[in-house]
Amino acid sequence: MADPVRILLQTTIPYTEDDWHIGRFSRLRDHLAGLPGVEVTARNREAPPGQTDPVLGALDASDFDEMWLFAVDVGDGLNADECAAIGRFRKRGGGLMVTRDHMDLGSSVCTLGGVGDAHYFHSKNPDPDTSRQVRDDQATRDIDWPNYHSGANGDFQPVSVVGERHPVLEGVTRLPAHPHEGAVGAPAKHPSAHVIATGVSRTTGRPFNLAVAFEADEEGGRAIAESTFHHFADYNLDPAMGAPSFVSEAPGDGFRRDPAALAETHRYFGNLARWLAGS
């Protein structure tokens, strides 16, 4: 019998009830755990900012095959030892999915080599295209760029494929929407990185990148940089599951009205799991 694919779902913050703790990604966890031959561990960090988390700091020595990192911190979610261990994990062939959100939310991933370079923030590693250093979503005034408005939480957005359809997008034409997504791009210094999917702002009509794929090469295993963790959060799949109190935008009901769109998002989750595992 083949060994299972072991996936770690990991946030960059200790458990905080009124925040994006790992329990707010339970639909993703349960879907992945229901796939044949997959084992899932879901956890928050267990060390205060600045101190080394026991799992993240030894990730390269673990038996995990993939880590899906939800960067929900305000810039202090990873330290140098953790970043080094994550780098060694990918170097040994581990699969990595790294996602964040608007403005500077999750900006600790900038300190990750490789995949971190694909994430653009407001105060760190800004988008090299200066024309994109402007507000997109205009409704939530306390959130500055990058903040691409793809729709309401609970609704879905159309996905445009860039180049040849990537395996993670097989059967996928729609993904969860969010009022203010972050920014990702393919950094020139990483030849294997390429944009695989784009969305369109419902405010400006401007296209923006949703996902960047890093193919396996001498830098390490396969990886994905994602524009927002809201593509995976319970609240975006079903707003009735609730969100932290600081979420102020009115939700939509697109997935409730169109279950086929939700099935495509579940397909995306499975595609990611298989591709990051090397299959």
Summarize the structure.
The protein is α/β, with parallel strands linked by helices and 279 residues long. The protein contains 5 helices and 12 strands.
Describe the protein's architecture and organization.
This protein is α/β, with parallel strands linked by helices. It has five helices and twelve strands. The chain has an eight-stranded mixed β-sheet, with helices on one face. Helix 2 links the parallel strand 3 and strand 4. It starts with a strand and ends with a helix. The model has no long low-confidence stretch (mean pLDDT 97).
Features:
279 residues; 8-stranded mixed β-sheet; 5 helices; alpha/beta; single chain
Could you tell me the strand content as a percent range? 15-25%
Main sheet properties: 8 strands, mixed
Radius of gyration: 17 Å
Name the strands of the widest sheet in spatial order: 2-1-3-4-12-11-10-7
